[in-house]
Every structure is written in structure tokens, then in C-alpha cells.
Specification:
By secondary structure, the chain is mainly beta. It starts with a helix and ends with a strand. β5 and β6 form a beta hairpin. Strands 1, 2, 4, 5, 6, 7, 9, 10 and 11 form a nine-stranded mixed sheet that branches. Strands 3-8 form a two-stranded antiparallel ribbon. The protein has helices at 2-11, 112-115, 178-181, 190-195, and strands at 32-34, 54-58, 69-71, 76-86, 89-100, 103-110, 124-125, 130-133, 159-166, 185-187, 199-200.
Length: 201
């Protein structure tokens, strides 16, 4: 009987998905939607590239930047915080957090001016802490990077590219993101996002 109980507990699905990655939402899920199709995890993009994360887009318009706050999904240390590409190309302003045990989370297409002074490389962050913003409409700033222009009608260019991946632990970079992501293994954050109440479109 004891052996059966131990096996049942070990194989029971988690409340936050079969393989729990995080338990804190990266955005306010009442103000955000998971993008399907080309925005989904491992969706095929132009040129045959695979989408290694999830696009989370705004579904609410507000002049208050707190509507577009971005949160650390777990506690950890900031491994990367800078522009990747430019304000209108590649990932745009990006933050990567090292959560320990080789687990990292990446937050891209962040509003540059609203985000750049909130955290820096080496900072310790708590789960649920605001680390950035997707937009600051009061100052005319929307998401950075190559955000698709057909995201959500009326909330165009307010979007987070969110990734979770396993990589060599303890790596930081003041330059290229590939230093951290070398030989990384991407994880699907979709089950945890759905369990946290995100709807999709």
C-alpha cells in the first residue's frame, strides 16, 4: 500500500501543468492573451524558423503603464538586461533571469525607456516582482523589437515574447544573448500559462 501511494503521488499531474516551470504570471493575465498560430510555442515562422517562446499580447488599452507590467515568474538573478538588436528589430529590450538549477526565463519586446532602469545584471529579483513594462502609452512608448503588426486590433505592438529554457547555470552576458543560450533546451511554458488563467486567441 505504501509503495502504491508513493507512485501515485509521484505521477499525479501538477496543478500548474505536468512539469511545473513557474507559478507566477509574467503579465497581468486579465489584461493579456496568449497568441496562437504563429505566436505559439514551436510554431513555424517565416523562413522555416521555429518560435522558441510564447507571444503574450495586451487585450486592454490604458494610459497607465502598470496595466502592462512584466513580472519575474520565479525568484532569481538577472543574467541579461539590454537591447537585443534595436528598438525596432530582433528581440528589442530583453531581460533574462537565472532561476538556478539551469532554469532561465526570457522577457523580450519590452518598452525601453520604461524598463531599462528597473533591473540590471546581477540584481536579485523575487517572484512576482515588476522587472519591466510592455508599454508606457502616456509617454508614447510601445513594445520594442520586431513585434508583429497584426497582433491584436486596437492594441497593436503591445506584446511580450516569453521563453523558458535550460542552459549552463550561472552564465551572464553584457553583450550577446547567445552566450547564455548556448546549447540550451527550450521548455514549453504553455501549460503553466493556461493553468495561471491565461486565455488564448
Amino acid at each position: 500500500m505504501k509503495l502504491f501511494i508513493a507512485i501515485a503521488v509521484a505521477t499525479a499531474p501538477s496543478l500548474f501543468g505536468v512539469n511545473v516551470i513557474f507559478r507566477n504570471a509574467p503579465t497581468n493575465n486579465a489584461n493579456s492573451l496568449i497568441r496562437g498560430e504563429v505566436g505559439a510555442y514551436m510554431a513555424r515562422r517565416d523562413g522555416g524558423k521555429l518560435h522558441t517562446g510564447i507571444d503574450i499580447v495586451a487585450n486592454k488599452s490604458s494610459m497607465d503603464k502598470n496595466t502592462y507590467a512584466v513580472y519575474a515568474v520565479k525568484s532569481g538573478r538577472v543574467a541579461y538586461a539590454r537591447l537585443n538588436g534595436t528598438e525596432s528589430t530582433d528581440y528589442g529590450y530583453t531581460i533574462v533571469i537565472d532561476h538556478g538549477d539551469s532554469l532561465y526565463s526570457q522577457y523580450s519586446h519590452l518598452a525601453v525607456k520604461a524598463s531599462k532602469d528597473l533591473v540590471k545584471i546581477g540584481d536579485e529579483v523575487a517572484a512576482g516582482q515588476i522587472i519591466a513594462y510592455l508599454a508606457d502609452p502616456a509617454k508614447g512608448e510601445l513594445s520594442s523589437g520586431n513585434v508583429r503588426k497584426d497582433v491584436v486590433k486596437n492594441y497593436d505592438k503591445i506584446q511580450l515574447h516569453f521563453e523558458t529554457f535550460m542552459a549552463k547555470p550561472g552564465v551572464t552576458s553584457t553583450g550577446v544573448l547567445s552566450t547564455i543560450k548556448k546549447d540550451c533546451r527550450y521548455l514549453d511554458p504553455t501549460p503553466d500559462l493556461v493553468a495561471l488563467g491565461y486565455a488564448s486567441f
